Amino acid sequence: MIDLPWYLRNLLRLAGIFFRFSRLVIGALTLRRALKRARPAVLPSSVSQLTANSRRHPRVCSVDGVRSPATYGLLRPVILLPLGFSDLTETQQLAVMCHELRR
Description:
Helices cover 50% and strands 15% of the residues. It is of the alpha+beta class.
């Protein structure tokens, strides 16, 4: 291992923290933009019933450009679904929703 002076080690740590924080901010901004384009998702009755029985009652939206389902928000959660979600079987949709609801 290379022995660096303390100020270089601290500078590298700060650079790493800045890099990780910037990725976090960019991800949050990308999700906020996706929320602006979101439309309410059309779900089968069993899937929508599962969402209605959830503790938090999240909004479920379909978004173009989202590649995989994602849950966003702590106080008012939103489940973002890709447009191809409706092509899945009902059993697959239930499995995805259970994962997103953390049941």
